Amino acid sequence: PPSEECGKDEEFYECRPTCKNTCENYKAKAPICPLICIKGCACKKGLVKRNDGKCVKPDKCDKIPGNTPHTCSKNEVYKKCGTACPETCAKRGIRPCTKQCVPGCFCRDGFVRNSENKCVNPEKCPKDKCPPNEQYSDCANPCNDCQIKGKCNFLVCNKGCDCIKGHYRDESGKCIPEALCPPKSPSECAPDEQLYDCVPSCSRTCERVLSKVKIYCSQLCKPGCFCKEGLVKGYDGKCVRPQECTVISAPPENCGKDEVYNECGSACPPTCSNLGKDQVCTLQCVQGCFCRKGLVRNDQGECVQPDQCPKSLPIQECKKDEEYYGCIPTCKNTCENYQAENPICPRICIKGCACRAGLVKRKDGKCVTPEKCDNTPVPPIQKCGINEEYYDCVPTCKNTCENYNQKNVACPLYCKQGCGCKKGFVRRKDGKCVRPEKCDKKPANCGLRETYYECMPSCTNVCNPPDACAAVCRPGCFCRKDLVLREDGHCVKKEFCGQSGQPTCDINEQYYDCIPDCGNTCNSYGRTDILCPEICKPGCFCKPGLVLNDENKCVKPEFCPRPVRECKNPDQQYYDCIPDCTNTCDNFGKTVACPIICKPGCFCKLGLVLNNEKVCVKPKE
């Protein structure tokens, strides 16, 4: 495009500068510079982009007209290095995001931005606006992607949109059918596909064949299945010959006010959130409705003039020796765990302040170098209540009348000093620590078709269960497990609901209101280190006394394959939990968020790591 389309003090680049080009990063000693080429306008040489979107000399970075620092709206905090993808009511949970610093006002921890640009508690967000193939959940599975397919034990779950059954998130964060997930081996490729070291997923598609404009493809290289030579991927995901491609376009009348249809639109269209910021974007064509030229999309989804976007104002920073993270490190970040050989790293992403690189959190809450871990000041003596005592790490589960006798309880892995009930006591609803036998007694006045529950299944055991159930545990009387609650208040069998009855389960299976699928598999049977999330879902599973094997068949535990504890490779040893996430050349010595999936087998001996050629070598090699 001609240079006159660029703003004041800007010029057109064939490849825009991707780092040291803003007031925030021009002084960075080791900046993150994405290796991508995007045409467009950017500040002239010698100038950098300021927070107000203007190109200025570096010495004028702090001179923003009308700037009033340290004042943000309610429930907001200022961050010098905020995320480029802040959570909103419409977009919550873990999502792919560019690794860049964005200064400005952000919602405080525990809050998200609603359609009115206000930071609110997620509970106040509407529950019915989720993208295609997603549904609202009070406990969205953070491991629902094509690689792990939900099979991990997560300790923290957030409310938000989750993939519907049979769908998983691809690399862009979209929920796609399981059949479209990239396979892991040639045997999993479809008949019209073959395994590639570098999948040509951009260059050989109907979209590229039919496009009237040149489509630039990312230089990323990843292995997987794709259409065989001579075939291209169609819009429906099937492999076809190029001449069989048909144009699929949305009728222009489907677009809203101030929108136009574009066959090759940007994957990162301008919005109020990214206005004036140099964002990293993938080079791909996206069909759909876009705001007409000169307008941007606000948080309500409307196309507006840029000056109608809400203004963000800066405020506070992190404490001494802390820095802001888009994803706070979850392991090797405290005096207690920084030396752990195989730490459990929860696969969750929480934004906020944490110790800067090279420091760890001490018990007194200060960030120190590891050698200062033992110099912890003696905690102040805290006066505890009756039947209480002081703990360096207060017990986090099986410590209340409601959960002390529950099985497979998910215990949060965090350490907090304070008072807790003495050993042998649990906390009652009135806040007192009592012996379990003094907890509230079960009532004996339940109805004929009812039974007493510690946690009533009042959301799942009904004729018309909702899509999402609140994670609330309340004791009381409710319909027996073989019955459901009808709208008229009667407990009946499912066939009397006016709908289809319970699903027909395979032999050796039975229907459960809460599938006991955690700890009841050949790989996990009899183990005590399994972390089970408190998620209740109905369906078919193995009958009591049986466990699920690797072929998804229900068998007696004694028929489970015995693990082979001898390894053929002399450089390998047997592990009950293979350390195949951290002990590789790519991940060695790094803080990596590993799925909490434990599987036995052979892997490199201690002191060796696995290289890209699947050979065990010393780390320095």
List keywords for this structure.
single chain; about 625 residues; mainly beta; Laminin; two-stranded antiparallel ribbon; two-stranded antiparallel sheet; 40 strands; about 20% strand; globular; peptidase inhibitor activity; protease inhibitor; SerProtInhib-TIL_Domain; disulfide bond; Ser_inhib-like_sf
Describe this protein's structure.
The chain has 621 residues and is mainly β. It has one helix and 40 strands. The strands form 20 sheets. It has a two-stranded antiparallel ribbon with strand order 1-2. Strands 3-4 form a two-stranded antiparallel ribbon. About 1% of the residues have low confidence.
How would you summarize the topology of this molecule?
Blueprint: E1 10-13, E2 40-43, E3 48-49, E4 55-56, E5 76-82, E6 102-107, E7 112-113, E8 119-120, E9 134-140, E10 158-163, E11 167-169, E12 175-177, E13 193-196, H1 206-210, E14 224-227, E15 232-233, E16 239-240, E17 259-265, E18 286-291, E19 296-297, E20 303-304, E21 322-325, E22 352-355, E23 360-361, E24 367-368, E25 388-391, E26 418-421, E27 426-427, E28 433-434, E29 450-453, E30 476-479, E31 484-485, E32 491-492, E33 509-512, E34 539-542, E35 547-548, E36 554-555, E37 572-575, E38 601-604, E39 609-610, E40 616-617
Antiparallel strand pairs: 1-2, 3-4, 5-6, 7-8, 9-10, 11-12, 13-14, 15-16, 17-18, 19-20, 21-22, 23-24, 25-26, 27-28, 29-30, 31-32, 33-34, 35-36, 37-38, 39-40
